[in-house]
């Protein structure tokens, strides 16, 4: 662990808490530009897979956590000022959310081109799961989620059952979608109440694949 800490300290975090990261495939192709903070670099070093800091979502995410297009890190280089990193990776699938191999797939002035974007549906659930977790650990006045946790197991389970019934009796397509969204939310609350993460459920489903 001390060796890991020493590696992380080599980056000049005093200049900026977030540093740019150029990501290059093992064949020399530049794939993308991302960002890391100390925690993202630590997770990358610990797991061997690229983790980045999302400035828009303000959280750490593993590259490919939703799409499966992970980046296995082969080497990490640091620039002369110690405030930028270069990751040499083995890219699984594509690197760009547009479905292109690299984020740098067009010349300046060329029109946008998508070849089939990545489905980030699971990201929405992960973000919702994180909000629910925060409301459980740090209750907020006026928060419906915090109110559910305060009222306890009976209320949480009852609401989940009610939402399940709402899905079953819904007839119109739009209504089914609406009620299913409610059901998923209350399912995440139920899981959080029991200290179960969505990732554990996904792991169980993955294990059932033949």
TrEMBL record:
It is an enzyme of class 3 (hydrolase). Keywords: Amino-acid biosynthesis, ATP-binding, Cytoplasm, Histidine biosynthesis, Hydrolase, Multifunctional enzyme, Nucleotide-binding. Residues 33-105 form the Phosphoribosyl-AMP cyclohydrolase domain. GO terms for molecular function: ATP binding; phosphoribosyl-AMP cyclohydrolase activity; phosphoribosyl-ATP diphosphatase activity. Its main location: cytoplasm. GO terms for cellular component: cytoplasm. Residues 1-124 are annotated as: Phosphoribosyl-AMP cyclohydrolase. It catalyses: 1-(5-phospho-beta-D-ribosyl)-ATP + H2O = 1-(5-phospho-beta-D-ribosyl)-5'-AMP + diphosphate + H(+); 1-(5-phospho-beta-D-ribosyl)-5'-AMP + H2O = 1-(5-phospho-beta-D-ribosyl)-5-[(5-phospho-beta-D-ribosylamino)methylideneamino]imidazole-4-carboxamide. Its EC number is 3.5.4.19, 3.6.1.31. Pathway: Amino-acid biosynthesis; L-histidine biosynthesis; L-histidine from 5-phospho-alpha-D-ribose 1-diphosphate: step 2/9; Amino-acid biosynthesis; L-histidine biosynthesis; L-histidine from 5-phospho-alpha-D-ribose 1-diphosphate: step 3/9. Residues 125-210 are annotated as: Phosphoribosyl-ATP pyrophosphohydrolase. GO terms for biological process: L-histidine biosynthetic process. The keyword Nucleotide-binding applies. InterPro entries: His_synth_HisIE (IPR023019), HisE (IPR008179), PRA-CH (IPR026660), PRib-ATP_PPHydrolase-like (IPR021130), PRib_AMP_CycHydrolase_dom (IPR002496), PRib_AMP_CycHydrolase_sf (IPR038019). It is found in: Cytoplasm. In the C-terminal section; belongs to the PRA-PH family. NCBIfam families: histidine_hisI, PRK00051.1, PRK02759.1. This is Histidine biosynthesis bifunctional protein HisIE. It comes from Palaeococcus pacificus DY20341.
């Amino acid at each position: 662990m001390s060796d890991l800490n020493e590696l992380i300290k080599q980056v000049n975090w005093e200049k900026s808490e977030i540093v740019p990261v150029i990501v290059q495939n093992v064949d020399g192709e530049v794939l993308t530009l991302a960002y890391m903070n100390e925690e993202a670099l630590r997770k990358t070093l610990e797991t061997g897979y690229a983790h980045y800091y999302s400035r828009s979502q303000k959280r750490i995410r593993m590259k490919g956590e939703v799409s499966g297009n992970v980046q296995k890190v082969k080497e990490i280089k640091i620039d002369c000022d110690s405030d930028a990193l270069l990751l040499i990776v083995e890219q699984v699938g594509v690197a760009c959310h547009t479905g292109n191999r690299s984020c740098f797939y067009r010349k300046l002035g060329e029109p946008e081109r998508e070849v089939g974007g990545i489905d980030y549906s699971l990201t929405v659930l992960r973000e919702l799961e994180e909000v629910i977790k925060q409301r459980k650990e740090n209750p907020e006045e006026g928060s419906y989620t915090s109110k559910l946790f305060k009222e306890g197991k009976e209320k949480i389970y009852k609401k989940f059952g009610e939402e399940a019934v709402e899905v079953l009796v819904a007839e119109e397509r739009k209504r089914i979608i609406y009620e299913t969204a409610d059901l998923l939310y209350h399912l995440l609350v139920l899981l959080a109440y029991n200290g179960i993460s969505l990732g554990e459920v996904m792991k169980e489903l993955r294990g059932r694949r033949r």
